[in-house]
Amino acid sequence: MSRIYKILTRALWQAAAAAGRFDGAAIDLTDGYIHFSTAAQAQETARLHFRGQTDLVVLAVETDRLGPALKWEASRGGQLFPHLYGPLDTAHVAVVTEAPVDAEGVPQLGPLTP
Predict the structure, then answer these.
(1) What per-residue confidence (pLDDT) applies to 56?
(2) How many structural domains does the chain have?
(3) CA 91: distance to chain centroid?
(4) Residue 2 to residues 6, 67, 108, 110: CA-CA distances in angstroms?
(5) b/e map of 56-89 (b: 16 or more CB within 10 Å)?
(6) What are the backbone dihedrals phi and psi of residue 100, each rounded to the nearest 5 degrees, phi first?
(7) Is residue 22 part of a domain?
(8) In a domain, 112, yes or no
């Protein structure tokens, strides 16, 4: 079992939790899949795409619960990133943690389990 991570605003997460599913943030909806990162990729994703944003949370999702809708595809620098083609059932979210920003405005994700 391994975990993948999704960074999003608290408001998006609260709406998803209430609905029982997460269809994606704006970029996910545009691209046609939900962007995730591995534990090794997540902090760089936070730095590149979420700098200056506050009130963020990080979802930890176990990959074995996602089935064939989860695809590993080349992205930044040729690295394989997990992409979910379909909604995320919020019951599959193992852990939700805070992502406070540092002095430079970069969300800090803390230690993540691979």
Answers:
(1) 98
(2) 1
(3) 15
(4) 14, 13, 21, 17
(5) bbbbbbebeebeeebeeeeeeeeeebbbbeeebe
(6) -65, 150
(7) yes
(8) no
Domain holding 74, by residue range, is: 3-98
The model's pTM? 0.95
Per the CB < 8 A criterion, the answer to whether 100 and 107 are in contact is yes
Mean per-residue pLDDT pooled into runs of 10, the chain (114 residues)? 95 98 97 97 97 97 96 92 98 97 96 93
Residue type for position 96: V
**Integer Cα distance of 106 and 31 in angstroms:** 24
Residue 30 is predicted with a pLDDT of: 97
Q: Residue 53 domain-assigned? A: yes
Query: Coil, helix or strand for 22?
Result: strand
Q: Is-contact 62 2, C-beta < 8 A?
A: yes
